[in-house]
Write a structure and sequence with these properties.
single chain, 65 residues, mainly alpha, 3 helices
């Protein structure tokens, strides 16, 4: 399993970013009552940034920058 995670860390970091985006959308739209258009844009942006940051740090940690 460790080899799979190390080989596919880019996909895992993007999956975590998508999860963060869905969580942000749920919190903004259902809990705080923000319109779905604004919630979607904010959630998409934050999820994309989270996936990119995780991908950058995982590549830097393993010497692939």
């Amino acid at each position: 399993m460790k080899n799979y995670i190390l080989l596919h860390r880019s996909e895992i970091s993007h999956a975590i970013g998508v999860g963060i985006g869905f969580l942000n959308f749920y919190i903004l739209y259902y809990s705080w009552g923000v319109s779905w258009e604004i919630s979607f844009v904010l959630a998409f942006t934050l999820g994309y940034l989270a996936g990119g940051v995780l991908d950058f740090f995982l590549d830097k940690e393993n010497g692939k920058t």
